[in-house]
Amino acid sequence: MKRIAIITGATGGIGREFVRQVSGYELDEIWAIGRNEVKLKELSDTYGEKIVLVTADLSEISGIEKVERMLAEQKPEVRFLINNAGIAKMAACREFSQEEIIRTIDVNCKVPVLLCNLCIPYMKQGSNILNIASASAFQPNPYINLYAASKAFERNYSRALNVELEGTGITVTAVCPGWVDTELLPKELNGKKVKYPGIVTAERVVRTALKDAEKKRDMSVCSLYVKCQHMNVKFMPQRLVMKIWTGAIKKYIRE
User: What confidence tens digit (pLDDT) does each residue in 135-190 have?
Assistant: First the structure.
């Protein structure tokens, strides 16, 4: 039985870094899932025949069914499921279309749950699920409220699922980074250069996440900055937390 890793959002900064680091593990295949065929091909060119390219839009049920068929046909042992695909937009609620709202909730919430349920029957003791949430899951965040709320769902779901799977040897880890230095972060918004406090590299996020999963931790926070943030919001009134957050990012938002 071949041992595989499944990585969604595999062509993005964090997803690509997961592919790089997991490629060093004792795995037969890495199923790299993404929508962009050209970028997926770059992964196989870099990491070789171990990479299985899965072109799929997971916000569509056909994309989920494609993964389901592959699992049913090949019956692999899933050593890693890494739910990295996600959508984020910093804007006032009035700037979101209905399509954007539906797609964000589908990709950030529905897709990880569906893939977890599909993959768990193919997992054994020592398998790991890593759901990429965010430090935004720790508190309400105006102007990225849809993203933050969806990541709070993903974090809570992951930690609860980890408890449900106690005794199976399968670990579920909610990965909660702060700002990560990838091409997805805009350098400017509304003509203003954006500052990202506590920003870290994707390499550090992934390395810490894999170590925390190996230690069977249900949450991974990779920097002292975010650990302090997590502690602070536990004790500060949420109204004050939101006021501080809004004050820091309001200059980047269109009025």
Answer: 999 999 998 999 999 999 999 999 999 999 999 999 999 999 998 988 777 776 66
Beta pairing class for 219-220 and 192-193: unpaired
Taking phi over 0 as left and psi of -120 to 50 as alpha, with beta for the rest, 216 belongs to: left
**CA quadruple 231, 180, 147, 114: dihedral positive or negative?**
negative
DSSP assignment of 171-199 equals EEEEE--S-EESTTS-SEETTEE---TT-
Sheet with strand 128-132: strands edge to edge: 51-55, 29-34, 3-8, 77-83, 128-132, 171-175, 219-220
Distance CA 248, CA 243 (A): 9
Q: Which residues pair with 171 in a beta bridge?
A: 128
Bridge-based pairing state of the strands 29-34 and 219-220: unpaired
Distance CA 167, CA 61 (A): 31
13-66: per-residue pLDDT in tens? Answer: 999 999 999 999 999 999 999 999 999 999 999 998 999 999 999 999 999 999
